[in-house]
Amino acid sequence: MKLLIAGGGTGGHLFPGIAVAEEFLGRTKGNEVLFVGTWKGIEARVLPKLGYPLECITAAGIRGKGNVARAKGLAMFLYGYAQSRKILKEFRPDLVLGVGGYASAPALLAAKGMQIPRFIHEQNAIPGFTNKMLATVADQVFISLEESRKFFPEGRTLLTGNPLRRQILEQVVDGGADERQDDAFHLLVFGGSSGAHRINLTLAEVLPFLGEAKGRLRITHQTGENDLEDVTAAYEEHGFQADAVPFIDGMADAYRWADLIVCRAGATTIAEITACGKPCIFIPYPHAVDDHQRRNAEALLKCGAGLVIIEKELTGELLARTIRELMDDPAKLRAMGDAAKGLARLAAAQTIVDEMLKAKKQ
Ligand SMILES: CC(=O)N[C@H]1[C@@H](OP(=O)(O)OP(=O)(O)OC[C@H]2O[C@@H](n3ccc(=O)[nH]c3=O)[C@H](O)[C@@H]2O)O[C@H](CO)[C@@H](O)[C@@H]1O
């Protein structure tokens, strides 16, 4: 059987798609998956490394911009639609899954035109424009959080959770414990799939306030492409033992290694952190559509599974104090990690594949 997975742009959309691909391919020998995305998206960098085939189409947003940009977006959409039809005719998928992001729209609409069973997955509490629109043509809508149900058609919407990649699930199965080579405190800092400039800047301000904690700390910091040099220089200047990298391929190992995480609150990040049961300080991205990252983070805060610092109130001094307090309170760290674990949904990829196969048979 053949599955086409459309969408991406950011890791938060793409990685759940990869999780579904892993599950689908594992079901029956001979199953095939093709991804459809754009050259600009993270999929163009990540999928070839993992050995997944990818077709790139033209796609852009058409929402909330000037008339010229909107007209251009529409023209690109029509072109992407024609490209998608061609891809569908050649690959002849049995099922099409949209995971959000611009490229999912032309592909799902082309699947509707060709009467191929089609599905979408929404990662966030508040859905993006593309998925709200595509819900009208999808046979079924899979959601990660109960909060988003109200945006989608009743009777065609199913709560599945956010699919987790095998590397993350394997860590859950083996307990996620790190075999310690040292008695240091491990801090993982990352800013979603493309890094977070504001978190990068603030970390440089945090360092002078960490005082004697410096000797105990080992830091791994994902910076994104642009701030690597500045962040590396800041750690060197203040004498910290830190690894700054633009992107972490093995996130499961990074989670396993971490005693505490400082990060944004994207939906896929949250799904992974709850699965791994790790304590977190969330700094939600304030410009995400409808402030959905803050909602994501506050859901964890409410359950004692994470702390939240909103960007408006973020200072180096405050973040340093919060990190130090947690470093000195292992019981609280453990309680936060356990509470996070209680929120995990581990079977999302399985449920989604089961449901798609069921729908195909009907
Ligand atoms: C700014 C913005 O609007 N971001 C959105 C985007 O975020 P973004 O793409 O940052 O998504 P998430 O934070 O949800 O997920 C990040 C993903 O990237 C992976 N990762 C991250 C860093 C790294 O070095 N290596 C790596 O593999 C993580 O393991 C995770 O799988 O999509 C999410 C899901 O729709 C939304 O909730 C976010 O609000």
UniProtKB/TrEMBL annotation:
It is an enzyme of class 2 (transferase). It is found in: Cell membrane. It catalyses: di-trans,octa-cis-undecaprenyl diphospho-N-acetyl-alpha-D-muramoyl-L-alanyl-D-glutamyl-meso-2,6-diaminopimeloyl-D-alanyl-D-alanine + UDP-N-acetyl-alpha-D-glucosamine = di-trans,octa-cis-undecaprenyl diphospho-[N-acetyl-alpha-D-glucosaminyl-(1->4)]-N-acetyl-alpha-D-muramoyl-L-alanyl-D-glutamyl-meso-2,6-diaminopimeloyl-D-alanyl-D-alanine + UDP + H(+). UDP-N-acetyl-alpha-D-glucosamine binds at T10, G11, G12, N124, R165, S193, I248, Q293. Residues 4-143 form the Glycosyltransferase family 28 N-terminal domain. This is UDP-N-acetylglucosamine--N-acetylmuramyl-(pentapeptide) pyrophosphoryl-undecaprenol N-acetylglucosamine transferase. Transmembrane segments: none annotated. HAMAP family: MurG. It is a peripheral membrane protein. Its EC number is 2.4.1.227. Residues 187-347 form the Glycosyl transferase family 28 C-terminal domain. GO terms for molecular function: UDP-N-acetyl-D-glucosamine:N-acetylmuramoyl-L-alanyl-D-glutamyl-meso-2,6-diaminopimelyl-D-alanyl-D-alanine-diphosphoundecaprenol 4-beta-N-acetylglucosaminlytransferase activity; undecaprenyldiphospho-muramoylpentapeptide beta-N-acetylglucosaminyltransferase activity. Cell wall formation. Catalyzes the transfer of a GlcNAc subunit on undecaprenyl-pyrophosphoryl-MurNAc-pentapeptide (lipid intermediate I) to form undecaprenyl-pyrophosphoryl-MurNAc-(pentapeptide)GlcNAc (lipid intermediate II). One of its GO terms (biological process) is regulation of cell shape. Belongs to the glycosyltransferase 28 family. MurG subfamily. The lineage of its organism: Bacteria, Pseudomonadati, Thermodesulfobacteriota, Desulfuromonadia, Geobacterales. Keywords: Cell cycle, Cell division, Cell membrane, Cell shape, Cell wall biogenesis/degradation, Glycosyltransferase, Membrane, Peptidoglycan synthesis, Transferase. Coiled coil: none annotated. Pfam families: Glyco_tran_28_C, Glyco_transf_28. The keyword Amino-acid biosynthesis does not apply. InterPro entries: GlcNAc_MurG, Glyco_trans_28_C, GlycoTrans_28_N. Pathway: Cell wall biogenesis; peptidoglycan biosynthesis. One of its GO terms (cellular component) is plasma membrane.
